[in-house]
Amino acid sequence: MCGILAVIGDRLSKEKVSSLSKRMSHRGPDESDVHITEEGYVLSHERLSIVDLETGKQPIQGTSTAWMIHNGEIYNHEALRENELKHHKFRTTGDSEVIVHLYEEYGYDFLDKLDGDFSFVVVDGKDFIAARDPIGVKPLYYGTDDDGAIWFASEMKALADDCSNFAAFPPGHYYTPETGFVEYYTPDWYDYKKGKEKLDLAKLRESLIAATKKRLMADVPLGVLLSGGLDSSLTSSIAARLLEGTGKKLHSFSIGLDETAPDLIAARKVAEFLGTEHTELYFTVEEGIEILKKLVWHLETYDVTSIRASTPMYFLSKGIKDKGVKVVLSGEGADEIFGGYLYFKNAPSPEEFQKETIRRVQRLATADCLRADKSTMAHGLEARVPFLDKQFLKTAIETEPKEKMPSTYDGVEKYILRKAFDTPERPFLPDEVLWRQKEQFSDGVGYNWIDELIAYAAARVTDEQMAEAAKRFPHNTPATKEAYFYREIFHSHFPQESAAKTVKRWVPKWQADLDPSGRANTSHVASTAKKQLDELAKV
Questions:
Q1: Exactly one of 2, 6, 48, 160 is catalytic; which is it?
Q2: CA angle centred on 231, ends 227 and 234, rounded to 5°
Q3: What is the pLDDT of residue 517?
Q4: Which of 215-219, 301-305, 403-407 has the lowest mean pLDDT?
């Protein structure tokens, strides 16, 4: 997990590129380096050492003239070394190096061989290829400057000042000077009509276990983000089982406004059940408000949902890194795959339900993936997301949508995921957690976090400003004072029109109240939530 910057075309100095790259030093606090090729192309890398701590420094040279920078993890790198690349000589034992060797072996046609999360650039003479992983777990931006040079960077802040035009690099694509953008990832499940597979709970369960297992690859201490919700609790439970007998201790972490936060109560129960080394962290509303400007600089978004949820995640990530843990598992993606957001209960048909799950997964790069990556990497912490494993996605999304619709089973969201891990002979989770009502992360840390945030923003944006909002912000015009408040902060960091256009807003569907909080949905019943909390609080 790192920060990368490449400039193809300009003969920039090492000092210039290094200073721009250092804007992302939070992504890679362990090492940094810059390489300039004979053609004057520049590759810069800020490294967070996770695998091969001794020899994995980047940029990495291939067999001869090719060089590479990579952000992410390639989980099948050992298999690639032993098979497709068995005749290649490697300079490191890390996962990243296989990328440059695959380029040398296959040219542009190798992306489907990678199993992992990545953004990378390979340069070979005047040729180059840049690519981003299928779902967009890892961020990547691209742009051009006034001299025609092409820039690639993990975060917008490294290129925004120098590029006249820039945008987010599309997930599941690669770019070369010969081909332009090419979509290499086009799974069958992109077509909602292909969701015809019969429900197989055992296959679903084993697929998620396999996805979690490969994400335990690390040469540093490993932890789990444990909100007490279904998704993070399942990945924590699976990881705990996989680490049994290895001598490795699983660290779990949760956060809330105080000890009564819904997530903390549930997480406490799960941690005790799993026997993890558990840490609870707290933040105040005042502390959250105080770091908003810095947070938006890290996130590079003005989306309301992302900012609300990223604030506790930002504090949580700092606490985790302070404990010496550098890698965590997280539950992002499950709500999109299984229609877990409460508004999905209003889906008019299985067909529309399926379409919306696919749309949400395809837009994860602008929402939960962005939040998870940039909130954690603000403190040099790597988050891994088992639910977004390619094989698990195929298994889950291609299951018949009627099996996934909440209305089929008395309105219980993510029913088939819960059912797949409802194993009485050896439970993965306590029943009261396995069947707990969905809480979005920004709600679960404590309900008054959002309430007070809305009030704070409302007091700082006037009615006159809202009346002129469309003139000031014609693109994605903010519809609420809270949204306007965040937009002003974003604009102070990134005033470019291109920057504003990189942001996609998270808006619930099939719901009268368009506030993105889960509590805005009529399915969220306060009395039900209180009853669940009372049950969780019992010892």
A1: 2
A2: 95
A3: 52
A4: 403-407
Decide if 217 contacts 51 (C-beta within 8 A).
Answer: yes
Beta bridge partners of 183: 173
Q: Give the DSSP H or E segment for 74.
A: strand 66-74
Q: What is the pTM of this model?
A: 0.93
Measure Cα distances from 312 to 53, 57, 328, 377 in Å: 30, 32, 15, 14
The edge-to-edge listing of strands for the beta sheet with 222-225 is: 277-282, 251-256, 222-225, 327-329, 382-384
Which residue do the tokens 């957001």 mark?
341
Compute the distance between CA of residue 104 and CA of residue 284 in angstroms, rounded to an integer: 52
Residue in 92, 84, 87, 29 with CA at minimum distance from that of residue 61:
92
**Alpha carbons 251 and 223: distance in angstroms, whole number:** 4
User: Does 474 sit behind a cis peptide bond, omega within 30 degrees of 0 on the bond before it?
Assistant: no
Q: Which residue has the tokens 């770091």?
A: 291
Q: What is the pLDDT of residues 356-370, one digit of tens each?
A: 999 999 999 999 999
In sequence order, the β-bridge partners of residue 142 are 152, 167
- For the segment 85-102, the average pLDDT, to the nearest whole number, is 95
The span from the CA of 104 to the CA of 108, in Å, is: 9
- φ, ψ at 370 (rounded to 5°): -60, -50
What own/partner pairs with CB < 8 Å and gap ≥ 24 does 49-54 have?
49/219, 49/220, 49/326, 50/1, 50/218, 50/219, 50/220, 50/326, 50/327, 50/382, 51/94, 51/95, 51/217, 51/218, 51/219, 52/92, 52/93, 52/94, 52/95, 52/219, 53/219, 53/220
DSSP state of 138: S
Give the phi and the psi of residue 49 in degrees, each rounded to 5.
-80, 115
Is 369 an annotated catalytic residue? no
- Residue 513's φ and ψ, nearest 5 degrees, are -85, 115
List 81's β-bridge partners, or say none: none
